[in-house]
Amino acid sequence: MHKGIHLAALIILFAACSGDDESGTNNQQGRGTQVIPAVEAVQARYGSLPLVERFSGNVRSENQVPLYPQISGRVEQVFAENGDFVRKGEKLVQLNDEQAQQQLLQAEAGLRINKARLRQAEAQYSELKSRYDRAKQLAEKNLSSDAEIEQLEAQLISAEADVELAEAQVQQSESLVDERKETLSRTLVLAPISGTIGQRNAQVGMQVSSATQLFMIGDLTKLRVEIVLTESMLNKISIGQSASIYVEDSKGNTREVRAKLSRISPFLNEVTRSTEAEIDVDNTNGLLKPGMFVPVDVHFGESEQATLIPVSAIYTDPATGKEGVFIASSIGSEIVPAADESNNSGELTALTEPTDVTFTPINILARGRMEVGVGGMESGQWVVTIGQDLLGEGREQARIRTVSWEKVLGLQNMQREDLLKQALGDTNPSQNATL
């Protein structure tokens, strides 16, 4: 990333310094001397390095539900629009219910018929039972034959079976009526949870089925940011660590939303050897939206005390492959870096006279996203952050513009397209930077 910053920022620096260098360069060329480039430098400092890992996060609603109809039908009415907040149980969509109404009427009529048959069977059974009881009494007085008793017993058993059959038919009809009522109720789609409506697909007149998504509904005040952790990251990232989520506001400025790592899935994918972690976010300011793809920094501790330099100060010698920095050795620590890149008149801060610059190899002790802890140099020394490619051509002097850590970190945090805009003079370099 810092190489891209070097190249883009050189465009800025060249455009800003061309006026300062033009006359001096012509004079030097006239004397046959080497061109002295203009670069930017910041003062190395001593401290602990915040250890940060950057991820790409996917924003989801904490209770995000795609809504489908339970039956097929034609949409008659739609009661909700995108962005509407609805409460659990509110009406969302009405499907055509004519067929369901007719089926319910038929089922209710069938139930009435079967209930009437049950009453008829019970009456017949009651009549035969009375005849049988009288015949038994007469048989005790030898006034009734055994054949008549046996005939009545057979008829009574048959009548009892008719009653049982009629009762079963009534139960079947009652179940069918309940089923038809449930089908009719499903023609009205209700909100399963309280939340905000989005991704509306329901339109009046369209034919839908149980596979047709009508809406997406979710609680936008409670969001969840999902990130992917590799196997090696699990050794240093754990639940409860702080996270910074970056998102642009309505004015185009990058805002930071702070939260904590809420949970980590203990099961790794057998192919990718990765797992998911989730960050619960209270989205009361409404900056985040479900479906966003946002940068997320997880802070997992601090390094030991060391000399710190910006990542953009590191230069890799193409000849030897060694990593190092260019140190402006003759600039004293008494020089205070500019708090801003321009003074009150709007002009860029002045460059120093030609200053000796030496390439010094470094030993990187700890890496952060914006800074590195190094050995091989002392705090207070001035290290070049923009213009190393010009110095890498063998030049031993440069004209230095001293800058603040805030400006350097702001540039490092900018996206590539922001740097290009800055190179063309379209934006302030600190406008979109999160410091």
Cα distance spanning the termini: 17 Å
Indicate the structural class: alpha+beta
Rg estimate, integer Å: 41 Å
Measured as a percent range, the helix fraction is 25-40%
Q: List the domain count as a whole number.
A: 4
Number of strands: 24
Question: Which terms summarize this structure?
Answer:
435 residues; alpha+beta; conserved putative lor/sdh protein from methanococcus maripaludis s2 fold; Elongation Factor Tu (Ef-tu), domain 3; OB fold (Dihydrolipoamide Acetyltransferase, E2P); 4 domains; six-stranded antiparallel beta barrel; five-stranded mixed β-barrel; 6 helices; 24 strands; 31% helix; 31% strand; disordered N terminus
In a few lines, what is going on in this structure?
The protein is 31% helix and 31% strand. It has helices at residues 2-31, 98-140, 146-185, 388-391, 405-413, 416-423; strands at 38-43, 45-47, 50-61, 65-67, 73-78, 85-86, 91-95, 188-190, 195-198, 207-208, 215-218, 222-230, 242-248, 254-264, 274-282, 293-302, 306-310, 315-316, 323-328, 355-361, 363-367, 371-375, 382-386, 397-402.
How is this structure best described in words?
This protein is 31% helix and 31% strand. It is of the alpha+beta class and 435 residues long. It has 4 domains: 2-48 and 304-423, conserved putative lor/sdh protein from methanococcus maripaludis s2 fold; 57-62 and 219-302, Elongation Factor Tu (Ef-tu), domain 3 (Beta Barrel); 65-96 and 187-216, OB fold (Dihydrolipoamide Acetyltransferase, E2P) (Beta Barrel); 98-174, Helix Hairpins (Orthogonal Bundle). It has a 6-stranded antiparallel barrel with strand order 3-12-15-14-13-16. Strand 21 and strand 22 form a beta hairpin. Helix 1 (2-31) packs parallel to helix 6 (416-423) and helix 2 runs antiparallel to helix 3. The longest helix has 43 residues, at 98-140. The two termini are 17 Å apart. The relative contact order is 0.20. Residues 1-32, 339-347 and 423-435 have low confidence and may be disordered.
